[in-house]
């Protein structure tokens, strides 16, 4: 049996110009908004982890 952790939802507000550019990019690259934003967040977190190796994961309450 393959158990997956349910995905979390993230609601953000972005500048209309950024939204339009993102919409165009996702259309031409045949990707979803989710795929692009997940990739960008993962890259950002990796960058920060290199700069700040003392990050800890908070406990799940």
List keywords for this structure.
extended; 2 helices; 61 residues; mainly alpha; single chain; 0% strand
Description of the molecule:
With 61 residues, the protein is an all-alpha fold. The two termini are 26 Å apart. Helices cover 54% and strands 0% of the residues. It is built from two helices and no strands. The protein has helices spanning 16-29, 33-51. 0% of the residues are buried.
Classify the secondary structure makeup into a structural class: mainly alpha
Strand residue content: under 5%
Number of strands: 0
Gyration radius from CA atoms, angstroms: 15 Å
* Overall helicity: 40-55%
- Distance between the terminal alpha carbons, to the nearest Å? 26 Å
Largest sheet data: none
The rough form would be described as extended
Low-pLDDT residue intervals, each spanning 5 or more residues: none
Count of helical stretches: 2
Topology:
Layout: H1 16-29, H2 33-51
Condensed summary:
The chain is mostly helical and 61 residues long. Helix content is 54%, strand content 0%.
């Amino acid at each position: 049996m393959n158990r997956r952790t349910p995905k979390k939802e993230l609601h953000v507000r972005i500048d209309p110009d950024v939204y339009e550019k993102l919409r165009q990019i996702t259309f031409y690259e045949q990707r979803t908004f989710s795929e692009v934003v997940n990739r960008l967040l993962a890259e950002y977190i990796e960058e920060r982890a290199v700069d700040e190796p003392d990050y800890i994961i908070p406990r799940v309450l």
